[in-house]
Amino acid sequence: MSTLFDIFGFLNVVLRGLDFVAQSVLLGSVAFVVLVATPLAGEVQRELSPVLVGCRRVIQAAALAVVVAVTATTVVNAAVLAASLTVSWREVAGAGFVIAGAAKVIIAVMIGLLASIGSVPAASTRSALGAAGALFLCTALADSHAAARLRDNGLPLLATGAHELGAALWLGGLPCFWWALRRAGARELASRIGKRFSALAITGVALI
Hints:
By secondary structure, the protein is mainly alpha-helical. Helix content is about 85%, strand content about 0%.
């Protein structure tokens, strides 16, 4: 039994890492679209169209990766809890990490759908993506070690949130930035995107 728990523990670490990478790319891509790309759409919408198409695909892929990683992590943790405490899956379903995982999956799906069916340059889609991204970060914090503290968890939650948001703004936005540089037809557009993303990346580094 101890060997089985060791295997589950190792698997949980791997899945957590994949979850964090997918989460960072999803949040970073949303931030790139909302804060870097769409503010330029009113001036150079035609030239920006290939960039937005690429960002849409990155968001869709990241949302799918989050769904897979979070679902797998939650199932593994639930299985360990059920086996160690000898309780039913129905009882495990009410655990905090299960609820947080389900909420995270739902919001990731929502972000993927918004990017798929909404007009990304539209102000309404931009606002909805930003709000969904903020909710997604909150659900990620709900399943963190800081949230599990029984007391004095305010500062750890703030630090964890800053770390996760900073990683997303800086590293998570790199796939969209790479795509934008490849697809930006005009050198001036690429330069403007680079300047806006540089400011975003500096903010991310400061938060980390």
